[in-house]
Amino acid sequence: MEVKINNQDGNATAQLIGRLDTPASQEISGDFETLAQYAAGTIILDCTQLEYISSSGLRLFLSLRKAAAAKGGKVIVKSINKDIRSVFMMTGFLNLFEIQD
């Protein structure tokens, strides 16, 4: 699992590449802590190359959303595949996040 973070003007974009399973969630938790520094702005999670997400990965997304909500920012989830969209639908995450195609 790889995370590439770009920031500009107090906002951040993170490209998520690979499978976000439990071991990967632990591996990239520091990257999500870095993203939380931009919680007052807009954080875009670009999932174009994200192949899979586990419940541990969903927890990372949710913790980032909570940090953004507390600081008046927002998290946008971009370009999820149909399998991840199904997971988001089943868990109610489609209602929690702004989803962009």
Produce a short descriptive summary:
The chain has 101 residues and is an alpha/beta fold.
Mean pLDDT: 97
Which class of secondary structure composition applies to the elements?
A: alpha/beta
- Give me the CATH superfamily: STAS domain
Radius of gyration: 12 Å
What is the straight-line distance between the termini?
22 Å
Work out the number of β strands. Answer: 5
Shape: globular
Task: List unreliable stretches of 5+ residues.
Answer: none
Write the layout of secondary structure elements.
Layout: E1 2-8, E2 11-20, H1 22-36, E3 42-53, H2 55-71, E4 74-78, H3 82-91, H4 93-96, E5 98-100
Parallel strand pairs: 2-3, 3-4, 4-5
Antiparallel strand pairs: 1-2
